Amino acid sequence: MNKVILMGRLARDPEVRYSQGAAPVAVARYTLAVSRRFRREGEPEADFINCVAFGKSGEFVERFFKKGQMVSVVGRLQVRSWDDKDGTKRWSTEVVTEEHYFAESKSSFEGRMASQPFSQPNDFSQPHQQAAPKSAPDASDGFYPIEEGIDDDDLPF
Q1: pTM here?
Q2: Domains of the chain by range and CATH?
């Protein structure tokens, strides 16, 4: 089985091109900065993973994905090889995405981008500082706050 599930921030705006032919197909390429859960001293805090989406998925990415946005994708790993102009064998590994999900609300993303714009591409490796919890629930961002002390046995699912 070849299945990949990733969640991370877009390192840059997607690059979209259309194939030539009678029925042009969208090809969207983008990079996800996926935080590492554990890391050793001197290692990067994130992996930058190349992704590609074709057809309707590519059009979706072109329309809705923006640099800095937290997204989740499902797809398959693909490895390609070719000979460059010097005759050297080159390899490329990428995730061909089939499903795309937003991992943060639109208002949260826009508010974060307005208050804390990213100045450098490698800023995605830095953990995002969350605001202090509000005393009253605020559903304006589309999410309902969950108490930290809640036990899994108390959940209805």
Answers
A1: 0.66
A2: 4-154 (2.40.50.140)
